[in-house]
Amino acid sequence: MSSNANVDSNTASAQALLANDTLPWHRKITYGFTDMSGNLLYCIISSYMLYFFTNVFGLSVGTAGVLLLIGRIFDAIGAPVMGILVDHTHSKYGKSRPWFLWMSLPFAIFVWLLFTTPALSGTLKVLYAGVMYILADLSYTAMSTPITSVLPNLTSDTDGRMQANSIRLVLGNVGNFFAVTFIIPFAGLLGGGNDQKGWSLAVGIYSIVAFILLIVAFLDMREKNIENEKVITIKESLKATKGNWPWVLIVVANLAYWTAFIVRNSSMPYYFQYNMSSKALISFFNGFTIIQVIGMASVPFFVKFMHKWGTTVFFLLMTMVGQAWVGFAGSNVTSALIGWCVACIGSGSACTMFFAMVGDTVDFGEWKTGVRANGFLTAIGASFCIQMGSGFGSFIASMLLKGFGFNAADKVQSAGSLSGISFTFVWVPIIIYAISLVLMIVYRKWENHEPVVKADLAKRNAEEANKAEAAQA
Question: Is the Membrane keyword given for this protein (predicted)?
Fold first, then answer.
């Protein structure tokens, strides 16, 4: 009888913990400031880095591609290291939150220096580009890893996490909008004909705004239950991956997603400048990426009816259809714009899902192994995928452009070069997105198991809380 009473008590305690663990709206919004800040700068890198290196900084497309790949390898290695550092962080602010304070200024400074062209030439100029690229990306990893790892500690409520993550991605898209839409005309305005000067000044101003947003997010954020979290060893962090198949699926699918996304973004400026014969279309089309907030905002509603795996598959398929539409549109700007908007809604919404689901795999890892490795698992599932996917994507794009004969010094590209640009921008991303889509169909099995995981973890936490109260009595 007593045993049954304890079970009922633990179950009731678990239900009470889940019911009362809500995240206020103002904190959901300031949580979104983190991604808004990151995207304000990082989306300049992901969308224009290859273009900047070849058409502004003055590197060959082959050299730029190799630098981008090498830099991303360093950063990809840094992602799990950063995750382990988060898991080993113990401060009055929590595990993830203090990193927004510590990394806000380095992140802003290094990105500004990356887009500042020094009075160097030859090997020194290449070395400067490589070092600044690595430092900018490492600082982004150190800032972005906590964005994902902090979410499970902000609230244990699944719906609350999904809402906060959706708001984060919507505000992140606002940052992306200002980054990809206005940076080229803004640099042109400030440079007055000097592109190198203009890019340095424009990115410098963006960096100041990004720094302020991160500080505001840090000041408002609160991590819960940090006093009960133990500092785990590297061995324990690795243990959290054992048998964590949903995490493996998310990592590979997200890696494929980011590879496809960066292939598209890296080749996009070349497509509009050379194939569509209008440099102005780069900013014009990128300005319409803001439309993806429609999909992002609707994600929680789609999840209710299609579940997470089905919602992700749906939006990935939408992305692929939009990409193909752009390809078949040819020189018809209106038709191409419609396809571009469809692709942007799909890709932006699919991205939202990956960030949300990687947080769920932290719960699965704890349920399976008893180890809650927020930092390590989310670092691999998010930052590693972004960095490595960006490296693969930029390298694939640059090597394809080089193979088809692209040369930035030629104002008019050859027929072979134009075909290569079109193939890289339109069709290569579709092929890679398809890999991600298939993996998410497989993920369905693990999502169906989530209610058991949530209930068991809540009961364990309630039992530990009751034991702690009994020990203090």
Answer: yes
